[in-house]
Amino acid sequence: MILTTPIWLFALAAISIPVVIHLWNIRPGKTLKVGSIALFTESSPKSSRSFKLMDLLLLLLRCVLLGLLALILATPFWQKQLTTSKAKGWVLIPEGNYSYVKQHYKADLDFYASKGYEYHVFNPSFAKLDTAAVGKTKSDTISDDHLNYWQLVNQLNNTVSPNTPVALFTPNSLSHFSGEKPATSLSLNWHTYTPADSVDTWLAGAWLKANGDIRVVQGTSTPSGTIYQYNDIKNGGQTGSNYQIGVEHGTPVVSFKNSKIAVDTVTKRIAVYADKNALDANYLKAALDAVAQLSQRKTVIRIYNQPEAIPAGQSWLFWLSEKPIEQAIIEKNSNVFCYQGRQAFSVNSWMSNADSYTIKQGLSKIALYKTTSQSPFADAIWTDGFGNGILKKESGKTNVYRFFSRFNPAWNDLVWSEEFPKWLMQLMNTQSFNTIGHDRRALSADQIKPAYVTGTNKLITTPRTAIDLSHYLWLALMVVFFTERWLAHKNKQVLANG
Question: Which controlled-vocabulary keywords does the entry list (predicted)?
Fold first, then answer.
């Protein structure tokens, strides 16, 4: 048995409470009737107490009740070793993709079927599928499951024996892969394919310009990447436009095909806290002005020298100080970009705004001379030539971007590059773009396949399944509780009758 949160076992100390209550049994003295107390001499008052266990069954039930409650809070699971399957191997297919896989990989499926492979659904249950039913599937109803396929492979390591070959058929969509690649000892043959709906066009954003026009951002996502196209709808008309304009609940709305988005009429407010880095602030201010001119969004940019002078509710706050930013200041703004670290490391490298998946979008490389970090990050937005993170994002109610360099020519050539406004525009504008459910970027087979562990480092796993014991413990808890209440009520009636 394994416990998910074993710290709750400290709650077992509560068992001492009913034990102390039962031991501390104060028995009242008896009254003796006599004819006269004239011959009795005065004595000092005495009280008697006796420690004696009463109602042992009731005490036991109360202790068991508290013990069961502590065990439930610890979330226990029972690990059961799976019996070795007689199947020669496994074929795993995501739910809703059966007919597509059958259509494009018929020869492979026929081969695996001839070898006696079992069909299983590729989700956390790994439920067995009826081979005949899969063969008769004519159409798919593909659901947007948002499953992380790398996490499922990690679970598969503890479900299938390393000696059982596994054939896996999945889409290569980027949305199904995040985090670190898994390591596996399985004999895994991973087939990937591009889904049929591999191109998506939608309205990613819309805002009101200073002259009253509406700027619309149309996104197009393909397996090779995502691009954004900017179009303007003239104030007072939509001649030659493919967009439809309407008003819903007092807010202008732009429609295009099956996509609809509200027009942002709020002015973007950007604050820059310079502290002692006035030179950095001037370079950043110039780049932000260029971004505002390119995006044509109503924007107010100001530089502040005192933190208390920064108004709350900023769209972006650039904290260009080596002093740590207070959490209270972070919570007052929507996005915070802050310098991170003080100790500078000299490097001879370059920095790129390409993430680990879309290399083609970050062909530009900026010379890097100094950094305050020499560690890689799983989800770095900007990286150096060694793969170490230069800029990382912490998502939350306030998005916090931690920059491990400086906007200074002594640290890098970013502030002198024409790419500087482009990088900032990509960073700031994409946060307001609607991309959920529209990302069609794809990974290559080499990027998807996990790391294989062989030889002395091979992962030796025994197929096991975890059974949640909480349901059984809750049932036992209810039985013990009602038994304890019935017994306590019964004992009370006996004392009253006595």
Answer: Membrane, Transmembrane, Transmembrane helix
Q: How does strand 214-222 pair with strand 225-233?
A: antiparallel
Q: Give the whole-angstrom CA distance, residue 400 versus residue 404.
A: 13
Single-letter residue type at 98: Y
Measuring CA to CA, how many Å separate 426 from each of 149, 226, 228?
Answer: 28, 12, 10
Does 76 share its domain with 91?
no
Taking only the tens place, the pLDDT of each residue in 222-260 is 988 888 888 888 876 554 468 888 888 888 899 888 788
In terms of phi and psi (left: phi > 0; alpha: psi -120 to 50; beta: otherwise), the region of 296 is left
**Whether residue 291 is found in the same domain as residue 413:** yes
Copy the structure tokens of residue 17: 């409470």
- Indicate if 204 and 302 belong to the same structural domain: no
345 and 408, same domain (yes or no): yes
Please write the tens of the pLDDT for every residue from 419-439: 999 899 888 876 567 777 788
Q: Which of 66-80, 118-132, 246-260 has the highest mean pLDDT?
A: 246-260
CATH value at residue 281: 3.40.50
Does residue 424 lie in a domain region?
Answer: yes
CB-based burial, 48-68: b 16+ in 10 Å, e otherwise: eeeeeeeeeebbebbbbbbbb
Domain shared by 421 and 451, yes or no: no
Q: How far apart are CA 375 and CA 390, in angstroms?
A: 9
Range in 109-123, 193-207, 334-348, 461-475 the model is least confident about: 461-475
Distance, in Å, from the CA atom of 131 to the CA atom of 102, rounded to the nearest integer, reads: 12
Is residue 379 assigned to a domain? yes
Give the C-alpha separation, 428 to 290, whole Å: 13
Which residues, 6+ apart, have CB-to-CB distance to 229 below 8 Å?
217, 218, 219, 220
Q: Is residue 38 situated within a structural domain?
A: no
Q: Which domain range does residue 129 map to? A: 83-197+442-462
**β strands within 82-199, DSSP E:** 89-93, 117-121, 128-129, 166-171, 183-184, 188-193
DSSP secondary structure string, 401-429?
EEESS-SSTTTBSGGGSTHHHHHHHHHHH
Range with the lowest mean pLDDT among 217-221, 257-261, 300-304, 331-335? 257-261
- Return the ∠ at Cα 176 (arms to 170 and 182), rounded to 5°: 85
Q: Are residues 164 and 131 in the same domain?
A: yes
Sequence length of the chain is 498
Are 317 and 415 found together in one domain? yes
Q: What is the pLDDT of residue 460?
A: 46
Instruction: Please tell me the total count of domains within the chain.
Output: 4
Give the number of other Cβ atoms within 10 Å of residue 26's Cβ: 9
Choose one of 242, 262, 282: the last residue of a domain: 262
Q: Which of 241, 262, 283 is the last residue of a domain?
A: 262
**Residue that the structure tokens 């599937």 belong to:** 137
